[in-house]
Amino acid sequence: MEIKEKLGAIEAILFASGEPIEIYRLSEASGVDAGTLPSMIRLLNERYEDYGSGICIKKFDSSYQMCTREEFSPQVRAALETKRATPLSNAAMEALTIIAYNQPVSKGFVENVRGIDSSSVINNLVEKGLVEEAGRLDVPGKPIVYRTTSVFLRSFGLSSTADLPPLPGQSDLVLETEDEFVEREMAESQQNTQN
After folding, report:
1. Which of 162-167's residues contact partners 24+ apart within 8 Å by CB, and which partners?
2. Would you place residue 2 in the very low, low, confident or very high pLDDT band (cuts 50, 70, 90)?
3. Is the full-model pTM beyond 0.90?
4. What SS3 state is found at 177?
5. Strand pairing category for 21-22 and 63-68
6. pLDDT over 90, % of the chain
7. Is residue 130 classed exposed, middle or buried when 0-12, 13-18 and 19+ CB atoms within 10 A define those classes?
8. Which whole number is the average pLDDT over 42-69?
């Protein structure tokens, strides 16, 4: 397959997917080596840029997605008559920040940091597709742990969670990690059982 065909295959797969597609799947489906994909994507993006196209291809962690350019969002919104996205509440932003900077974390960890029940807030974030279940902790009760999604990355204009800005005063900030939280909870549970 020549380069022109490979570029066409990558473009077609990304367009048809509509969602982020993992690099290994894109490589397998297009017949393009995973190591060559970044240069092929760069070539496509340069082509789009040269033609003043309204689309681009973005990288999110270990996946690629075809997207519209930000400068055309008003026109896209008008054409699709989408309602303005409701902004996240302060509580949702708090919980999302805790999850993003400490992921994967349990609801109990989020509640411990916030100091308040966070069930409905986390459920809301899951419904919006900003966080997802990432498994369960291997402790009694097997609580669900959560992590951010590609929707989170796309919504905040990030390529990966490594692009998150540092927290103000982060060097002075000492938060309990999820492991420390679980150990403390288990110790308290055992102590309560012995009493």
Report:
1. 164/100, 164/101, 167/101
2. confident
3. no
4. coil
5. antiparallel
6. 48
7. buried
8. 93
